[in-house]
């Protein structure tokens, strides 16, 4: 057997040596060629005369082929996007002033416009108080109050870009509330001041009072853009709901999903949005006079009206300061010299006195009451004040985020609330705040600045009670539902300003060419 194995090994070795010699010879005579011989009699299919030039060339880039683009437009677009030359367009800037009811804020945004939608590169931000509406009939003073914000914008936009950087001043609930005559004079003064004294062009309609639906939808765009839920390639992603609590109004915007046999009721609340080539059917509504400051006014008005009914205040007696007990104050806390205006135009000066024991539950009774939950609902289901709203339980999945911001954030963050909490935890915080200073010491001592914040501002119990009522009683959000709150996402302010700025980039405006060097 051994000789047979030796001969077998010898045969294998000889065969391997022969193959190696052939391989070396082939490599030395030229590159290896892989081909298939075609019989000269084979039938070759005829090629259409229309295909004479393929979209390829010696130079990089796309070579047009009208026939191919007509027959295969999607493929042609894909080829163009992959073979196009690198975008060399310079970054663009937008100056957006949010003229809110409690103050004005400027946002200076820098965008890379080589992407679709544009990519946010940087934001600079500054704010001041009071708001434009506080100037009432002093239109010139209102316009000049924006100077520090506009000077800040000039400093943060490169000189060569200023003449083509659009500026907008969008007012919200504050100017809506003071009436058309006063607000128009203020906006005219602001427009003239911008045109005369600053280098930024003004797009048509950019100095104006923002509609409530725009305010909410732009805030929705901002939040979901920063979360990268929208404006991305591929399939649509789940989106977050947004709840924005300003001083004069509050907005709700979310993308509901319905069973196959249901759809959204038609009406002003329905908003079809095209963003990044995708369609979003949104529910939105802006509740005017249900912002935080307006909520305070409503509660104080109810207390004064009840005091008049009980004979504790003489109707029409605005000459002296009245003292009234308020369940929306913690024990031993007073709120002095409050001006309370009733619907009839009567104004009363009131010192509100805190109760002997915590009465947070009774405060919640009042904050629920002003929502007018029992108003007739013409198109069920409704949230509050008779306004239609799809159910947050049935049409908004629990896996989707709910973001609450502006005053929702401003009144919870200083008291140590984390970036995510349940509505039930917000109710617990409210109960603690309404319990008074003795309870504060045991709960908030470890949260820097919180005790000083509570002692310096008597409105916390009322404000938090109003927030709980608004979210739970008003919008019907279950107590177990998790809420997220933030001032910024990716170091960019949440709110409507970024969404409005993305829209402004696509608007028509003429550059101030003389300003460009």
Please identify which CATH superfamily of the domain at 92-210 and 498-515 we are dealing with: ATPase, nucleotide binding domain
Low-confidence sequence ranges: 1-8, 20-62
Strand content: 15-25%
The largest beta-sheet arranges its strands as 8-9-7-6-13-15-14
Q: How many strands?
A: 17
The CATH C-level class name of the domain at 92-210 and 498-515: Alpha Beta
Query: Portion of residues in helices?
Result: 25-40%
Tertiary shape: globular
Quickly count the helices: 17
Describe the structure concisely for a colleague:
The protein is of the alpha/beta class and 517 residues long.
Give short descriptive properties of this protein:
disordered N terminus; five-stranded mixed β-sheet; seven-stranded mixed β-sheet; 517 residues; globular; Nucleotidyltransferase, domain 5; hydrolase; single chain; alpha/beta
Describe this protein's structure.
- With 517 residues, this protein is α/β, with parallel strands linked by helices.
- Among the domains are: 92-210 and 498-515, ATPase, nucleotide binding domain (Nucleotidyltransferase, domain 5); 366-494, no CATH class.
- The protein is 36% helix and 20% strand.
- The strands form four sheets. It has a seven-stranded mixed β-sheet.
- The chain starts with a helix and ends in a 12-residue tail after the last helix.
- It is a single-pass type II membrane protein.
Secondary-structure blueprint of this entry?
Elements: H1 2-29, H2 66-71, H3 73-83, E1 92-99, E2 104-112, E3 119-128, H4 139-144, H5 147-156, H6 159-162, E4 167-171, H7 173-178, H8 180-197, E5 202-209, H9 212-226, E6 241-245, E7 249-254, E8 270-275, E9 278-288, H10 292-309, E10 321-325, E11 334-341, E12 347-353, H11 360-369, E13 402-406, H12 407-410, E14 420-422, H13 423-433, H14 437-444, H15 450-456, H16 460-474, E15 482-485, E16 488-489, E17 492-493, H17 497-505
Parallel strand pairs: 1-4, 4-5, 6-13, 10-12, 13-15
Antiparallel strand pairs: 1-2, 2-3, 6-7, 7-9, 8-9, 11-12, 14-15, 16-17
Helix pairs in contact: 9-17, 10-16, 11-16, 13-16, 14-15
């Amino acid at each position: 057997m051994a000789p047979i194995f030796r001969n077998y090994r010898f045969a294998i070795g000889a065969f391997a040596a022969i193959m190696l010699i052939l391989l070396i010879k082939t490599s030395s005579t030229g590159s290896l060629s892989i081909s298939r011989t075609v019989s000269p009699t084979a039938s070759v299919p005829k090629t259409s005369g229309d295909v004479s030039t393929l979209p390829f060339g010696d130079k990089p880039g796309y070579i047009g082929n009208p026939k191919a683009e007509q027959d295969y437009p999607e493929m042609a677009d894909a080829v163009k996007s992959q073979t196009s030359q690198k975008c060399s367009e310079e970054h663009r800037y937008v100056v957006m002033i949010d003229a809110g009811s409690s103050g004005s804020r400027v946002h200076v945004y820098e965008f890379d416009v080589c992407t679709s939608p544009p990519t946010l590169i940087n934001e600079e931000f500054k704010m001041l108080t009071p708001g434009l509406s506080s100037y009432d009939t002093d239109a010139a003073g209102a316009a000049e109050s924006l100077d520090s914000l506009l000077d800040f914008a000039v400093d943060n936009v490169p000189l060569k870009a200023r003449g083509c950087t659009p500026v907008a001043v969008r007012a919200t609930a504050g100017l809506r509330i003071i009436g058309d005559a006063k607000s128009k004079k203020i906006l005219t003064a602001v427009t003239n001041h911008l045109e005369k004294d600053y280098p930024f062009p003004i797009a048509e309609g950019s100095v104006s009072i923002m509609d409530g639906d725009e305010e909410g939808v732009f805030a929705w765009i901002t939040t979901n853009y920063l979360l990268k839920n929208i404006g991305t390639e591929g399939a649509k992603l789940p989106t977050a709901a947004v709840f924005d609590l300003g001083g004069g109004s509050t907005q709700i915007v979310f993308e509901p999903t319905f069973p196959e046999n249901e759809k959204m009721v038609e009406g002003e609340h329905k908003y079809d949005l095209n963003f990044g080539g995708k369609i979003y059917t949104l529910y939105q509504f802006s509740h005017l006079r249900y912002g935080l400051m307006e909520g305070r006014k409503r509660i104080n008005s109810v207390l004064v009206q009840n005091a008049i009914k009980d004979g504790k205040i003489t109707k029409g007696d605005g000459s002296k300061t009245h003292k009234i007990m308020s369940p929306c104050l913690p024990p031993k806390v007073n709120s002095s010299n409050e001006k309370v205006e009733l619907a009839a135009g009567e104004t009363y000066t009131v010192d509100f006195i805190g109760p002997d024991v915590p009465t947070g539950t009774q405060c919640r009774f009042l904050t629920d009451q002003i929502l007018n939950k029992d108003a007739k609902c013409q198109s069920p289901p409704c949230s509050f004040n008779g306004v239609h709203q799809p159910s947050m339980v049935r049409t908004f999945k629990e896996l989707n985020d709910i973001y609450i911001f502006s005053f929702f954030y401003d009144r919870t963050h200083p008291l140590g609330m984390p970036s995510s909490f349940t509505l039930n935890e917000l109710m617990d915080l409210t109960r603690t705040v309404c319990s008074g200073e003795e309870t504060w010491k045991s709960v908030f001592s470890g949260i820097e600045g919180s005790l000083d914040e509570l002692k310096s501002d008597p409105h916390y119990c009322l404000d938090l009670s109003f927030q709980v009522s608004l979210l739970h009683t008003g919008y019907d959000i279950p107590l177990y539902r998790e809420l997220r709150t933030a001032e910024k996402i990716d170091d960019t302010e949440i709110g409507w300003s970024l969404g409005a700025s993305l829209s402004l980039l696509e608007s028509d405006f003429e550059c101030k060419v003389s300003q460009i060097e």
